[in-house]
Amino acid sequence: MPREDRSQEPHPKGPAGHRPPHDGPATASYDRPETAVPASGQPQTAGRPRITALDVLRGFTLCEILLANIQLIANGGTAVVAQPMGDWDPWLGLPIFSVLFGIGFSLLLDSAANRVPRPRLVLLRRLLALLAIGLVHMLLWPGEILTKYAIVGMLVLLPSTWLPRWAVAGLAAALIPAALIGGGGGPLLIAGLFLLGSALVRYGVIEQIERSARGPLLLGLVFAAGATAALWVQAGVQTGAGMTQPSSIMSSLADLLLAGVYVCALLALLRTPLRPALQAVFAPLGRMALTNYLTATLLVLAAAHILGLPIGQSLTTAYLTAGAILLAQWLFSTLWLRRHRQGPIEWLWRWVTWAHRPPFRRARSR
């Protein structure tokens, strides 16, 4: 889904003189297809490096989402006995995942714009494939998020590619507060976070994401101060009568800001001697995030129903089961990626995306 080479490729004109549909600087492609289909229909090799920080963030977020969802999955979607994150909203990982989805979407669009005459068709196929995967996954886990991602992506992200970057950023700035005021989540928040991720790419922020620890550190302090202020306001309004709505808004705002603190802390730590350890732990999970997200549901259901473990009735059992699943997925991902270019579900998803079978195994070194 790590190489230290951060060199960037310029954005030459694609087939038929097509240029990438954004007015920001060029960025390295996160999706980085090893082969694509130019206008001639022949495979084209692309050697853009992955952005390691995005893999680490995806892997970290995947762990948090499993910890948040494991009791719900084991209980068939009913309420959890105890929140895995204590008093915090247990789904802090979903806002991070939503921003990462918007980032990946725009990076792939950049890549497609350099390789095919109709790059938006590539993205449409990708979203339709994600919708199909989500609908199948919904049979096992009604609370899954992929279907919402696919639908919001088609209704919001894809049309936003015709807009200038300032309009995308403006829409994100409008939708996120509107979602908080309207209830704190749902498709409106997903749309705003998608657009935020897209705007970060189009303004060149992602291009600079691993070049300095100072920026993430300072931004993380700002987020932490904002979260503290939001919780302070929440504590104040809860003492008044009829103040449920402002309290809920402040709580949701604090959760979003705390998610931002997590992201900034990880980005800052990646600029320290801890980088190799963080990369080794989280990057394999992040590179196979879709495969691991889907197989986690199967593994939780197997443990809950086949083995008869009372996962949904015990927070300790939920933590232990989640830890065992993540350890197994990390080991599988690490070994799998030594021989393959991407995870099995990612490979199939890429095949549908580009309408061309990509390489599966890595070339053996002589």
Task: Provide a quick synopsis of the model.
This protein is mainly α and 366 residues long. The chain has helices at 52-74, 93-113, 119-138, 146-160, 165-182, 187-202, 214-237, 244-269, 275-287, 289-306, 315-339, 344-354; strands at residues 35-36, 44-45. It has two domains: 49-210 and 270-354, no CATH class; 212-263, no CATH class.
Features:
366 residues; mainly alpha; two-stranded antiparallel ribbon; 12 helices; 2 strands; 63% helix; disordered N terminus
Task: Describe the protein's architecture and organization.
This protein has 366 residues and is mostly helical. It has two domains: 49-210 and 270-354, no CATH class; 212-263, no CATH class. It contains twelve helices and two strands; from the N terminus they run ββαααααααααααα. The chain has helices spanning 52-74, 93-113, 119-138, 146-160, 165-182, 187-202, 214-237, 244-269, 275-287, 289-306, 315-339, 344-354; strands at residues 35-36, 44-45. The chain crosses the membrane at residues 91-109, 121-143, 163-196, 217-237, 249-270, 290-311, 317-337. Keywords: Membrane, Transmembrane, Transmembrane helix. This is DUF418 domain-containing protein.
Task: Map the helices and strands.
Blueprint: E1 35-36, E2 44-45, H1 52-74, H2 93-113, H3 119-138, H4 146-160, H5 165-182, H6 187-202, H7 214-237, H8 244-269, H9 275-287, H10 289-306, H11 315-339, H12 344-354
What percent strand? under 5%
Unreliable sequence segments: 1-47, 81-90
Strand order of the largest sheet: 1-2
Apparent shape: globular
How many structurally independent domains?
2
Give the SSE order as H and E letters.
EEHHHHHHHHHHHH
What about the largest sheet?
2 strands, antiparallel
The total of beta strands comes to 2
Number of helices: 12
Going by helix content, strand content and strand pairing, the class is mainly alpha
Rg: 21 Å
Could you tell me the mean pLDDT? 81
Task: Report how far the terminal alpha carbons are from each other.
Answer: 24 Å
